[in-house]
Amino acid sequence: MAEFTNNTSPPSLPAEVATYAALREKGMELIRELSGREWTDHNVHDPGITILEQLCYALTDLSYRINFPIPDLMTEAAAAEWPPHFQPGPMLSSAPVSLLDWRKLLIDTPGVRNAWIYTLDTSSDKYDSRVFYDPVEQALRMSPASVNRDSERILDPIRLLGLYRVAFIPESGPGWDAVNIKNEMRRRLHQRRNLCEDFHLIETLDAQEVQVEARIEAGDVSDPAALLADIYFVIHSYLSPRIRFYTLQERLADGYSIESLLEGPQLEHGFLDDEELEAFQLRRSVRISDLIRLIMGLRGVRAVQSLRLSLPGSNIVASTREGEPWELIIPDGYAANLAIPPSPAEKGEVGIRLFKAGLPMRINWETASQLLLKRKKAENERTKPRPQKMSYPGPRPGRPRQPGVHQSIQHQFPEIYGLGETGLPRPATPRREAQARQLKAYLAIFDQLLANTFAQLEGVGKLFSLKRGASEKTYFSQSMRGETPDLEPIIAWNALGLSQGDGSRKKTVTYDAKIQEWAEGADKEALWERRNRLLNHLLARFGEEVVEYDDVLKKRLFNQKEALLDEYAVLGGQRGKGFNYAEPLSNNADGLKQRLCLLLGFPATARPFLSGLPKDDPGSFHIVEHILLRPGLGDKSGQSPILQLPAGADESRPPLKDPFSLQLSFLFPGWLNRFDDGLNPGFRTSVVKTLREETPAHLKIFVRWLSPSEMAGFEQTFSDWKEHLKTR
């Protein structure tokens, strides 16, 4: 089988010559061009034409099998289903990235009615741990009072990036506890926290009752109680909307594709609509005009004569009365909720009154209350989160088609040729038998080429499999022994180091190995290079590239490429995930570290201490997220600078205005042989380049190479600091 390099491509035939007639005509054209003077008869009885026709039939069969559906070609008889971790859910989803992703994850928490996430303004005086930059001392402080007396020394608060605060409305009623809900939210947030990001505050929004007074003119209505219940319900839904989860079937029926549905994190309770989430923002204010529009949209309402909103126990109001505002402001830390009066408005309670032709309508308040309660329950039931077992319609299971099965073309020749199982007609002269064997040996070359090509087609599933070690070959072959009639006598067994009398088992192993060697070629380096190019191709399908800086590293990265493909569902979707500092740190590495360990050949297991490693150890590293080093309330009492870099020889200090936001430090054991430029030249450079390529682009990185004593001192402090993080 021919070897084609990057600079050459295998010969191909146009699509129009794939049929038997076209193939035969093309063959005849070549025969006339190359052998026209030697052949005087190109009719069907000519043996050469017969051979051409049999080969054309075999090629049309190959063409037919090549066009099998991809799932069929990728399916092996022993495993007819795709591996579980290569299903659409794990492969197409990702860790939360945007604020909308985080909000979906929060609302997916059991017991959360609605939730919001905001970037935290750390320069605001509402932030309890503000950090100030001192331009004179080039240092950071938390207590500016002692130095702000100097008019020329103004300290500016730093606005840290990557910090968020969360506000949520818990479900009410028995079985829901706000503290437990908050703890579950915190667990989920830390479990999926991104690198150089953190959640400073999770606050529960208390319900702020909103009272409604209204005079509404009704038209011809058959059930005034139902209309009153509808009015209360639309106001309730406006003030405190409930987010609805959709099932997979509902979203697919609405025209959404699997790819669009799986953008972002996978949720437990279904799918949330992006437009609905944007519309259902936390109401900081309530506009009278919005409520009038909603009420006028109800069937049976003719006019809203007056409308007034108020907060019980305060003078905050909004109404249609002249001189009063049309917008009701909701205090910070509260979520609006409609106050339902216990009795009808005509009995002196604040509420909604219906009129018809200027006269008050008599309404059964108990009936209206029951109808309102029924509507609320129906809404709760319709939008109630229900855990769903997501079964995504991935690629259809392939049918095992056995595309590699090849029947020798010698079965199809007329019996007079003596190539089939019956052999030559008897009696046959020695000369005639020699001629038949000579033709059989000639055709065996074509048969073997065809057999290997069919085997290559059957090996497509292994070549393109993402499983680690799925294929140790790039070319596939199959033996024609037992398939080609009477093939044994014409094999030169002595050329294979065997004799005619050797056992069948020994012959089979030797012959098959020789056929595979012929298919792959004797050059093992070329075989490795082909397999490496194939891995690069599979990685490129995911937009991944593992950079090979030199030939030594190129071979070292081969196994890592296979592992990256095999674990891509995790390593691809969580590349920007940070470690969960609220949980035990064993086997709790961030997504970036897992990728880097794989690409750089470091052990994947957790290694909390590196200071005692011998020089021949494969090594590892530590990652420090600077945002987690930010000062807290415990640092507020100090008057001296909380951070001040040492001065250089010229008494200058490097810029220090914000050493926390979107920054990472990588610390390596620099004494190991792997990082010794004399023993392993260029590896340090390749490590730094890999760090820059794999780290999310918005993060700034610093690389430090430590000595054993420096590493020991750092790790002691690092360990204590990570234990402290659990209590943050």
Give an account of the 3D structure:
Among the domains are: 1-67, no CATH class; 96-205, GMP Synthetase, Chain A, domain 3 (2-Layer Sandwich); 207-243 and 280-383, no CATH class; 582-725, no CATH class. Strands 7, 9, 10, 12, 13 and 14 form a 6-stranded mixed beta sheet that branches. A 3-stranded mixed beta sheet has the order 1-5-6, with helices on one face. It contains 22 helices and 17 strands. By secondary structure, it is α/β, with parallel strands linked by helices. Helix 1 (20-35) packs across helix 2 and helix 18 runs antiparallel to helix 20 (591-600). The chain is 35% helix and 13% strand. The model is unreliable at 1-11 (pLDDT under 50).
Low-confidence stretches: 1-11
Shape: flat
Overall residue-averaged pLDDT value: 84
DSSP helix fraction: 25-40%
Strand content: 5-15%
In total, how many beta strands? 17
Number of helices: 22
What Rg, in angstroms, do the CA atoms define? 38 Å
SSE-based structural type: alpha/beta
Could you describe the largest sheet, including whether it forms a barrel?
A: 6 strands, mixed
Distance between the termini: 64 Å
In short:
With 728 residues, this protein is of the alpha/beta class. Among the domains are: 1-67, no CATH class; 96-205, 2-Layer Sandwich (GMP Synthetase, Chain A, domain 3), CATH 3.30.300; 207-243 and 280-383, no CATH class; 582-725, no CATH class.
